[in-house]
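Action item from last meeting closed. Structure (181 res):
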């Protein structure tokens, strides 16, 4: 005899499928929430790590900026000291020059002439003096021209028989200072 199950097997099957669907949906939702939570935690972790890196880099940048300021200050100080050293070296180099200059004046001045005033601006030297005659002034200028420490003598003025210096000539001339090797 054939057995016929008259129970509502289709309804039971549908109910069981529905239960599995709901269970599977709940599992998928829980898994999705878990995945989302894990991704969110990982992103927060990465953001935190990157913020720490950024903070570290900012600290290092501020340290380097301070070092750069110190270096710039030191470079300015170095330039200032180098300028001072150059000035000192130039002074040391020209130190014997004044001795040579006066020695050249002593050699160049002829008898019957005397220097009353010497002034210098840069390499230009102004000389004022008294001479017994114009030929003594000419001799003085020729002697200056032959000097290795002086060059280009240029007569500015000659006043003969002034009230201050009767029987003599007052003169003013310019000469340039040179630096022989």
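Sequence:
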């Amino acid at each position: 005899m054939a057995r016929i199950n008259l129970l509502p097997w289709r309804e039971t099957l549908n109910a069981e499928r529905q239960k599995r669907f709901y269970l599977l949906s709940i599992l998928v939702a829980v898994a999705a929430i878990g995945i989302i939570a894990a991704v969110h935690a990982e992103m927060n972790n990465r953001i935190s790590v990157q913020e720490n890196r950024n903070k570290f880099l900012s600290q290092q940048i501020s340290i380097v900026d301070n070092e750069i300021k110190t270096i710039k200050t030191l470079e300015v100080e170095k330039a200032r000291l180098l300028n001072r050293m150059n000035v000192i070296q130039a002074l040391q180099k020209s130190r014997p020059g004044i001795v040579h200059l006066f020695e050249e004046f002593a050699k160049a001045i002829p008898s019957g002439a005397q220097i009353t005033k010497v002034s210098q601006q840069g390499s230009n030297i102004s000389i004022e003096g008294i001479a017994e005659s114009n030929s003594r002034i000419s001799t003085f200028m020729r002697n200056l021209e032959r000097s290795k420490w002086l060059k280009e003598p240029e007569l500015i003025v000659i006043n003969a028989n002034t009230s201050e210096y009767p029987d003599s000539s007052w003169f003013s001339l310019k000469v340039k200072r040179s630096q022989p090797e």
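Note appended to the action item: The chain has two helices and four strands.
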